[in-house]
Amino acid sequence: MSMLLQHRVKKLLSNSSELTQAKALLDSLPDLLPKDAASLSSMELRASLKSSLDVASLDAADAVLRETEGLLSSMDALKKQADIMDRKCRHVMAFLDSTERTSTQFVAQAAALRAEQDAIQLELDSTKDFLQKHQVSLDDLQLLEQAAPLTESQGTAMTSYFQLLHRLQTIRSNCEHLVATNPAASSLEYLEDICKAQALAFEKLYAWASVLCNAADAPDDHVSDLQDDSTDDVARLLPQALRFLRGHAAYYTYDL
């Protein structure tokens, strides 16, 4: 028996945690015993100790139950917070997804608008090029209107005027080609407008050339009045005017 007790003591000493638990259990025994434990018999002492142990077990179980309930309550509150966070995260994810779709739509719309702008710019450039080829510009019309009356002293003005006649002839050729390839009402209207502008230009050119030709047929004393610094320009520009008028029988006559 002593050997068994020694073995038990060594085993308890080898495990400090068990020793601590055993010591705590032994220390708690006096609290469980009644005050008159010394006067009680072994049977009564066991019954009292059993009753006290049962009460202590119930108290411990009740404490554990309360702690478990508190833990469950904390876990339930934590679950509610987690659910709230989950809903917020889902809302944020939905917002980000909507924002991404909206951004994608904006990018697509911007690309479509850019393509539309490029198409409009291309059409505008094409229209400008078309009008430049088939319509008299405002600057040319102003030059045509301001060219009257032409006099033999306007050498610089006549140089610009001849350049205008060349442009009008080019535009007329383009309009004639347009009518041949696309005989629409608008094409005929372009051709009619350029013909009117060209006719007005030739009328003023004819008037200018007539002044010089009539001056050449005038008496010598009148011709001497024309001998000034512009004579060289006139001598150079008059043949050009006659070359323009030669192709138009209505203006190029024997009298001219």
UniProtKB/TrEMBL annotation:
The keyword Endoplasmic reticulum does not apply. Belongs to the COG6 family. Keywords: Golgi apparatus, Membrane, Protein transport, Transport. It comes from Aphanomyces astaci (Crayfish plague agent). It is found in: Golgi apparatus membrane. Required for normal Golgi function. It is a peripheral membrane protein. Residues 42-146 form the Conserved oligomeric complex COG6 N-terminal domain. GO terms for biological process: intra-Golgi vesicle-mediated transport; protein transport. Component of the conserved oligomeric Golgi complex. This is Conserved oligomeric Golgi complex subunit 6. InterPro entries: COG6 (IPR010490), COG6_N (IPR048368). One of its GO terms (cellular component) is Golgi membrane.
